[in-house]
Amino acid sequence: MKNSLMTYHINPIGFIQSPYKEKFAVPRQPRLAPSATSRIKLVGEANSPEAIRGIEQFSHLWLLFLFDQNLEAGWRPTVRPPRLGGNERIGVFASRATFRPNGIGMSAVELKGVIQEGNQTYLELGSVDLVDNTPIIDIKPYIPYSDSIPDALGGFADKEPDVLDVFLSIDAQKSLSSHPQRREIEAVLKEVLGQDPRPAYKKGKVDNKEYAVNLFDLNVKFLVESNSITVTAIDRF
């Protein structure tokens, strides 16, 4: 009989490169910010064209990854999902909370292409919900006939979250005007901030605090009003 407390060692096969430089403001699910593209930098023995041969046949992939920034904090059997206002507790296995027994996450993402730069292999992806440099531990193709379940029930998360309008102040527009990625960044800002990244208990409420988040190579400051968000300032790192 095997020991039920056996441990296993997992090595990352790659690391994500995304616009999200910190956990704050990362979309709570993939595909909620379609303008925010990303890519995986494969490492070690996985950094080989042979390891991904044929992957271009698939439009989407499953990514398995580690919530590496939360591992030391441990986990609890119940959590407070943001979709329930952050007040109601449910079991951790009835949620997609980041504080999990083994810190493993899973996301379905779009595969946009494969890039080979010298000896380095990259997978170009669409929208993800991962902090920059998140360790990727496995990649599997998304199979529509088996993975898509049209009549599945979504429980407390059966509807897409409401999105607020996002406006850039004159100062913010000026700061962004000379950035080479201006159009992409402006689109990402509206998609990411429109989901109101504040703590769940503040959803739908107005406060006077000016928040800040690091996206791309920028520090973005913003205010939340009744039905909209205003970007007040944008500074380069």
From TrEMBL:
Source species, domain of life: Bacteria
InterPro entries: TrmO-like_N, TrmO_C, UPF0066_cons_site, YaeB-like, YaeB-like_sf, YaeB_N_sf
EC number: 1.6.99.3
Pfam families documented for this protein: TrmO_C, TrmO_N
Keywords per UniProt: Oxidoreductase, S-adenosyl-L-methionine
Enzyme class: oxidoreductase
TsaA-like domain mapped to chain residues: 10-151
GO molecular function, one term: oxidoreductase activity
The UniProt record lists the keyword Plastid: no
UniProt record similarity statement: Belongs to the tRNA methyltransferase O family.
Stated name of the protein: Conserved protein
